[in-house]
Amino acid sequence: MITIYTDGACSGNPGIGGWGVVIIDSSKEPVFLSGGENNTTNNRMELTAAIKSILYFKEKKELKIFTDSKYLKDGIESWIHKWKTNDWKTSNKKPVKNKDLWMILDKEITKHIISWNWVKGHANNEFNDKADSLARKYIEEKSTI
Questions:
Q1: pLDDT tens digits for 90-138?
Q2: Nearest to 10 by CA among 32, 36, 49, 34
Q3: Which residues are annotated as catalytic?
Q4: Measured distance CA(109)–CA(9) in Å, rounded
Q5: How far, CA to CA in Å, does 20 sit from each of 7, 17, 39, 105?
Q6: CA distance 124 to 129
């Protein structure tokens, strides 16, 4: 079992955004991934962090993913099934926001065994805090340019 913490952040919404990932495999040192975009939203960064964490693995793995985003967790575990049935429309018949990323995530999760877990953000969880720090790193670097 591999444990993953993901987080996204944004300065302005939309604005400069970053994503961070901490991968914990008990047989190795933790792996840290991060990146960002200059014009994005917090939700897009949350989704991107999850996608990047899953894409890190080339072979099928059992992954336990922690996120502090109810949008991500509820979306992937519940809402996405109705969205796909309704041709990527919400219950209000509006287009699903971030459809492009939801479609990628939906495809990638089929390659692994994944459990989704919610963790309270900014509650002194070492690995969630590290994922948050990694996400904010991109924002800080771009903000100083």
A1: 999 999 999 999 999 999 999 999 999 999 987 888 999 999 999 999 9
A2: 36
A3: 7-8, 46, 68, 122, 132
A4: 22
A5: 5, 10, 17, 16
A6: 7
CA 123 to chain centre: 18
User: Which SS3 state, helix, strand or coil, does residue 14 take?
Assistant: coil
| Rounded-to-integer distance, Cα 83 and Cα 143, Å | 36
Contacts with 48 (C-beta within 8 Å, 6 or more apart), sequence order: 8, 19, 35, 37, 101
Neighbours of 36 (CB within 10 A): 24
Report the CATH superfamily, name and number, of domain 2-69+99-143.
Answer: Ribonuclease H-like superfamily/Ribonuclease H (3.30.420.10)
pLDDT at 96: 98
Q: What are phi and psi for residue 36, nearest 5 degrees? A: 180, -175
CA distance 36 to 29: 24
Q: Tell me, rounded to whole angstroms, the distance of Cα 125 from its chain centroid.
A: 17
Residue type, 117: N
